[in-house]
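Moderator note: this is an archived Q&A kept for reference. The question asked for a predicted structure of one protein chain; the sequence and the answer are reproduced below.
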Amino acid sequence: MKKDMKKNKTIRDVAKFTFMPKLKLNINIQGISSKIIILVLTVIIILTCFNTGIATYTTYTTMDELFKSNIETLTLREKEYFDAITGNIENLTVSLASNTEFLEYGGKVDVLEGGEKVKGITYIKETISTAINSNKFISCIYLISSKGQIIYPAGSSSMDVSKDERPKWYENILESNQGIWFQLKKEEFPITRSDAGVTYGIKLTPRWGSEFILLYDLKKNTFTESLATMKIGETSQSYIILPSKDVIYGDQIYIKDESILEEQQLVADILAKTGSEKKITFEYEEGLLVSLIHSEQSGWCYINTVDKNEILAPAKRINTQLIYGAVLSGILFVFIGIYFSIQFTKPIKRLIGVMNEVERGNLTVEADTKGKDEIGLLGTAFNSMIKQIKQMSLQNDKIAQTVNASAQNIAIISKETATATNEIAKAIEEVADGVAKQSAEVNEGNESFKILSRKIESMYENVQYIDKISNDVQTITLNGISIMKSLQMNSLKTTEITQQVVDSMESLNDKINEIIKITGMLNTISGQTKLLSLNASIEAARAGASGRGFAVVAQEIRMLADQSANFTHNIEELIQNIISKTQQSTQMVYKSENIVSEQNTIISQSIEAFAKIQQIINKFIEYTEEISGYIKETENYKVQVLANMEQISLVSEINASTAEQISAATQEQFATTEQLSNMAVELAQLARDLTQSMGKFKIK
C-alpha cells in the first residue's frame, strides 16, 4: 500500500528537504502541515513584535520618567541648598542691621574724628570679623561708606562714588530697597578676592548719619564643589542664574572660552523658551533633558541638563537583549511548530493511501487510526463507510438480477397495451371537435360581458373620487371652525387684557392726582419759606453787624426756596404731559376695545357660516354614500356573473383542451408503449452491465 501511495505523489505538489540531522521530511505545499507552519510562524512573529514593542516602549517611558524625576529632584535640592545659604546671609544682614552701635558707627564713620573714629572703626572690624568667622560660606565682607571709603578690610583704598564715576553695581544697590545678588568682577572692584564666587550687596540706613553699603563675597568653592557633586550623569551640567542675569556654570565659573559662550547661549535659549514658568522639566532640542526651578526666596534660577542618550543607554541595552531573546524564542517556536505539524499530518497521509486503494475498487482495506482525536474519528467514519459500500454492492447485485427479469415481463405487456391505446385515440378525436365549437361561442359572450364590467368599474371609481373630495371638504370645514373658535378665544383674552389696561390707566390717573396735590403743597411750602427768608433778612438788617451771618443764612434759604419752586414747576409740567399721554392711551384702548368687539361679531358670524356649510356637506356625503352602496351592490353582482361566465368559458376550454390532451396522450401512450418495450430491452442490458461492474469490487 505504501508503494502505491508513493507512486501517486507528483513533483508539483511535493517539496523534499532535510530538517535536523538524519530526518528527511516531505511537505505538501498546499497541505495542512505547510498551513500550520505558516500560521505558527505568523502568530509568533506578531506576538514577538508586539511584546518587544510593548517592552521597548515601557522601558523607554519608565527610564524617561525616572530621569525626569531624578533631575527635577536634583534641581530642587540645589534650590533648597542655596536657599539655605542665601537665607543665612540675609539673616546675618538682619542681625547686623539690628545692631544699633554698628549702624551708628557705620553711618558716622566719615565725620568721626580722633579717638571716637578709632573706636568706631575698631568696633566695625570686630563685628565683621565675628560675622565672617561664624559663616563658612563667606569669603570677605566689605563696608563702603557714603563717601566711597572702604572701612573694611582695613587698609583698602577708597573708590570714586560720584554719580558719573560710580560702578553700575554700586548704583543698583543704592536704588534697591533690598539686597541684590550679582557677580563682582575685578575690573569693577579691584580689591575683591580671587576665591569669590557670588556677591551680595545691601544698603543700610541708620537713624543718625549717612547710608553705607555692605558687600558679602561668597566663596567660589561653595558653588563649584556643590554643583560638581550634584550630577546624575557624565553629561549632566548645572547652572545658576542670578537676578542680575549673571550665570554660574558649575566648576567653570570664570573660564572664558568657546564652550562657555555656547553654554551662555544655551542658557539664554532655555530661559527664552520657558518664559514665566517657575518650575518645569522638559525635553530641549537635540535630546537634551532640562529641569528649571525659580526660587521665590532669593530670586535665583536653577537649571540642570543631561543628555537623554546617556540616560537611555541602559534602556537601549535592555531592549537589544529583549529583541535577541524574542528572535531566538521565535526560531525555537517555529521548529516546534514544524515538528508538531509533521506529526499531525502523518495519519492523514496514511488515510489518503487507504482512500487511493478504495478508488481502485479494493473494499477489503481498512484505515489504521487508533487515536481518539478528530483524525481518529475520521478514520473510524471511513471504515464504517467502507462497510456500508460493501453492503450496498451486495444489494445492487441482487437488484440487478431482479431488474433483468422484470424488464423482460415489461416488454411483453407493453406490446399488448399499444393495440388497445390506438383504438381509444380515434374515438377521442371526434369528441374534441364538438367541444372546440362550444368553447368558441362561450368566449364571445364572455368578451361582451367584460365590456359592461369595465363601464361599471369606471362609474364606481368616479363615485369614490367624489366621496373622497367630500371628506376632504368636510375636514377643511372642521379645521376652519376650530381655527375660528381659537381666534374667538384669543379675542376674548384680548378684551380682558384691554380692560385690565383701562383699569391700570384709571389707577394711574388717581396716582397722578395725588402727585398734583403733593406738588401743590410743595409750592405752598416754597412760598412760606421765601416769606420766612424775607422776614429773616429784614430782622438781620435791623440787627446790623451782628446779624450779617443770619442774613447770609436767610439768603441761602431764599435761594433754596426758589430752586424748590422751580423743581415743583418742572414736576407739574411733567405730570401734565403724563396726564395728556395717559388720556391718549385711554382713548386708543377704547378704540381697540371697539375693534375687538367688532372682530368677535365677525368671528361668530363666520362660525355660523362654517356650521351651515358643514350641514350641507354632511347631507352631500350621505347621498354620495347611498349611491356608492348601490354601485357597490351592482359591482358585486357583476363580479359574480363575470365569474360564472369565466367559469363556463374555462370549463369549455378545459373540456376542449382535455379532449385534445386525451387524444394526444393516447397517441403518446401508444408511442410510449413502444418506447417502454425498447427501454425494457435496454434495462435488461443495463442490469447485465451493472452485474459486471459490481463484480470488480473485492468484497471477500
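Archived answer notes: The radius of gyration is 63 Å.
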